[in-house]
Amino acid sequence: xxxxxxxxxxxKNLSDIFFTPDKKYNIITGANAQGKTNLIEAIWILSGxxxxxxxKEKDYICLNGNKMSTKIKILDNTREQKIEFEMIRNSNRKxxxxxxxxxxxxxxxxxxxxxxxxxxDTDIIKGTPEKRRNFIDMAISQINPNFITHINKINAIINxxxxxxxxxxxxxxxxxxxxxxxxxxxxxxxxxxxxxNGYVEKISKICNRLxxxxxxxxxxxxxxxxxxxxxxxxxxxxxxxxxxxxxxxKLRESQDYDIRTGLTHTGVNRDEILIKINGISAKDYxxxxxxxxxxxxxxxxxxxxxxxxxxESPIIFLDDVMGELDESRQRFIFDxxxxxxxxxxxxxxxxxxxxxxxxxxxxxxxKINENDLSPHR
Length: 377
What we know:
The protein is α/β, with parallel strands linked by helices. 39% of the residues lie in helices and 21% in strands. The chain is built from ten helices and 15 strands. The protein has helices spanning 36-44, 123-126, 129-143, 146-168, 178-214, 241-253, 255-261, 282-285, 288-310, 327-337, and strands spanning 2-9, 17-19, 25-29, 67-75, 80-88, 94-97, 100-102, 114-117, 221-226, 272-277, 280-281, 315-319, 342-346, 358-364, 367-368. The strands form three sheets. Strands 2-1-4-5-6-7 form a six-stranded antiparallel beta sheet, covered by helices on one side. β5 (80-88) and β6 form a beta hairpin.
């Protein structure tokens, strides 16, 4: 997959951005707060994913502006496609795919595939269980876009169930209505649990291989899916009516506690992904270097799984990552992504490996400085 055309205007501090990316490396340089990360964020949102920085859509538009737009053309294995995202302040967003207006970003999941490496990726290791669940869910959705439908459904069901739990404390006669939501939650939750378990098994093997390489063969990295409902042995049987019934019974068993607290304590919303280095929790005992390496390896494993599954490479975004790594780790990444199209930001291009050659885009005040543009490194 390649991005062949980029046009951005009014996204945060960006204005009048227009360029044809290099097929290999696009090196975005400049001082801090000039728009380097904004540029790759503006492209990223066209994947149908939320901002990797946690930005809300209302913040996409420049503070002093009224409108933003970001447009790209991509070339996949079959054809060129065009994606457009436009917003006017205090109005609805407009998403256009190949000239056709879309109801939401769901369709973009099937079209534009990219993986971002950012400094905050260490939160996947040391952050909350939700961070790890979100990473796995995003990765699964990229190779199976239907998965996001199941996630959206279970989130809606849990919200409805929680609202009902709170009302039950005032009106006891509503308690019977919980079974309706529990049945729906069991159907969706069982599917999500099995898909998460399958993906974690797959990515764990790749992570271990990559981590052994980056650690010189001295350490092992293992991921384990800890379901809130199922035991590991439960996944040896298919996701059938028995599996759904087990999920349903777990929900019923926690009903009294859920009513007292007004929250759902059973199900995929309470799952955890355990990350261990040499059998010990990386979250609790990993060094800063181990945590950085583990997060890096997990993203690289995600890219490898996607490439094998889709038979094409994702677009890679490296936001201020390469310059912070020593030469051996840079070369480790380079060897894996060397056949992919890459957009990377760095305040100092001289900190990059000499093998990383491509188009240089110098950002200055939210624009590409044409007077300071080196066509290629």
